[in-house]
Amino acid sequence: MRLYLFGYYLLRPAPGILRICGLLLALLSWSPAARAANYYWVGNGGTWTDMSHWASTSGGTGSAYANVPKNTDNVYFDANSFTAANQRVTIVGTVTCNNLTWSGNVRQATFLQGASGVLELNGDLHYTATMATAPAIGVPHRLLAATTGAVVDMQGVPFATSLLFDNASGGWTFTSAFAGAAGSVVNISAARLVSFGSTTLTMSTLSTYTGSTT
After folding, report:
1. Are residue 19 and residue 72 in the same domain, yes or no?
2. How confident is the model over 78-109, as pLDDT tens digits?
């Protein structure tokens, strides 16, 4: 049996060498997707960066993670996130995740922009009609999906800031009504495809870029 490791021919591979090779192969095959986690918001309102609000299951115990969500992690807000009405989740600086999903009865909760708050999403966006109608969402969204097939599901929740499509390889489809309040801007800076379908769009400004598309 011949075995090569980093270009070197090993004449008599010992069992230990074989185990090392197996470990190296396992590490090389460990993709970022394998490190993705599901983050569930708990404990009513607060700041996105407060780790006491992040659980690993719906309604679970906070402080389940050492760090805030990464761009490969999925984030969930649901009926177990808020026990009181009209709660606010404040976003300070740029935060990120893969898919963002609000579902169930969230008791009129919504996002609130803190200092320089921006939300970056690498996957799908799902809001729920049980979110607050006032104030409108005021945190700019930057959509960065790298493939086609991403979903923008606004559920008619009032939106009063920038919705930026910003990946030339990405493709998005609106699947529910977009209710742009005063100050809303839909900016297609770079995208392979943005499909509005038969959804109802209400907005202050629509900005697009000029270039080749497919």
Report:
1. no
2. 999 999 999 999 999 999 999 999 999 999 99
Task: Please name the helix (run of DSSP H) or strand (run of DSSP E) that holds residue 192, with its range, or none.
Answer: strand 185-195
Q: What tokens were used for 182?
A: 């005063």
Say yes or no: 79 and 160 in one domain. yes
Task: Say if residue 190 is in the same domain as residue 105.
Answer: yes
Q: How far is CA 47 from CA 87, 162, 179, 213, in A?
A: 11, 21, 25, 39
Q: What are phi and psi of 103, to 5 degrees?
A: -150, 160
| Average pLDDT score over residue span 36-49 | 98
- Do 131 and 147 share a domain, yes or no? yes
Start-to-end CA distance of the chain, whole Å, equals 51
User: How many residues does this entry show for the chain?
Assistant: 214
Question: Taking Cα atoms as reference points, which of 181, 123, 113, 112 lies closest to residue 147?
Answer: 123
Give 107-145 pLDDT, tens digit per residue. 999 999 999 999 999 999 999 999 999 999 999 999 999
Residue type, 176: S
β partners of residue 39: 75
Q: 160-163: long-range contacts at Cβ-Cβ below 8 A with a sequence spacing of 24 or more? A: 160/135, 160/136, 160/184, 161/113, 161/137, 161/185, 162/187, 163/187
CB 135 within 8 A of CB 109: no
- Provide the β-strand partners of residue 55: 40
Residue 145 neighbours by CB distance under 10 Å: 25
Structure tokens at 58: 């719906």
